[in-house]
UniProtKB/TrEMBL annotation:
Keyword set, alphabetical order: DNA-binding, Transcription, Transcription regulation
Protein name listed in UniProt: Tetracycline repressor TetR C-terminal domain-containing protein
Extent of Basic and acidic residues compositional bias: 171-182
Signal peptide limits: none
GO biological process, one term: negative regulation of DNA-templated transcription
Organism this protein belongs to: Rubrobacter marinus
Chain residue ranges for the region called Disordered: 160-182
UniProt keyword Ion transport present: no
Residue span(s) of domain Tetracycline repressor TetR C-terminal: 40-161
GO MF annotations, alphabetized: DNA-binding transcription factor activity; transcription cis-regulatory region binding
Length: 182
């Protein structure tokens, strides 16, 4: 708080007129960023497309604010935006507990992917016994397609839970670069 006070040109103690402590300040930063999520309206498109777009927006937020996004890993999402994503899952036909489980799986995957992208993915780090063999394909990875691959795996599992008999949902998104980059 002293460092922030210096940056703002005020005494650190005066900051406590606005926030009770450092944790509240960091939590407020996360809340402000979360308000920037672009969650599709409940009336547009199928549930699978809405879920994809909501979590792609989450990843976009991480890419735009990598320093602050790391705080997401230590603070639970309890905002209206998180509730809107949860309601998309409920609107897809998931009961309360399965919708909560799906939300946790999707948000955990997205936060984990974003943090790995920020810090560096396993196998992309220099050295190691297979570094020379892996280097060429890793340089050509389409990160959006890679994220969508994992997202589609989760959505496919949700689709199976919703309709074990196999009726069609939204088709999975295909990579622009072909299956070898997924």
């Amino acid at each position: 708080m002293r460092k922030l006070g210096r940056e703002l040109g005020v005494e650190a103690m005066s900051l406590y007129n606005h926030v009770p402590n450092k944790e509240a300040l960091l939590g407020g930063m996360v809340e402000v960023l979360i308000e920037g999520l672009e969650i599709p309206a409940a009336t547009s498109g199928g549930w699978e497309g809405k879920v994809r777009e909501a979590f792609r927006s989450y990843l976009k937020l991480a890419r735009a604010h990598p320093e602050v996004f790391q705080l997401f890993a230590t603070r639970p999402l309890g905002t209206g935006e998180a509730l809107r994503i949860f309601e998309v899952l409920r609107g897809a036909g998931l009961e309360l507990v399965p919708a909560l489980q799906a939300f946790r799986a999707l948000s955990s995957y997205t936060v984990g992917y974003a943090l790995a992208e920020i810090r560096g993915f396993p196998l992309e780090l220099e050295g190691g016994p297979r570094a020379l063999e892996l280097a060429p394909p890793l340089k050509e990875v389409d990160r959006d397609a890679q994220f969508d691959f994992g997202l589609d795996l989760i959505i496919s599992g949700l689709r199976q839970k919703l309709d074990p008999d196999g009726a069609q949902g939204d088709p999975p998104r295909r990579s622009r670069r072909g299956p070898e980059h997924q």
